[in-house]
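Quick log. Single chain, no ligands specified.
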Amino acid sequence: MARADCRDWLCYLHSTLLPLARNGLLDEAAAIWRIYFERLPDRHAAVLSRTLRYIYWMRRLKNRRWGRDPLQLAALAEFSAVSGMMQRR
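-> predicted structure:
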């Protein structure tokens, strides 16, 4: 169940973070997510953190030439750093 829940959260974050980042709302969203993330069961937090480690390097991709999908992954990677998802395992 943890993997399915995490997949759903990652899909949601993947599709919404780029517009939030473009409008300067990433920090506000991170503060809200941080509260939610701290309440997740340890297993869910571990699955999310482990999954995000694979794309963490992408947070440095900022140029539009990469296209929408890589930029969405970059926004997700940046969000994982800002929101603290990489610290809790």
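The chain has one domain: 2-83.
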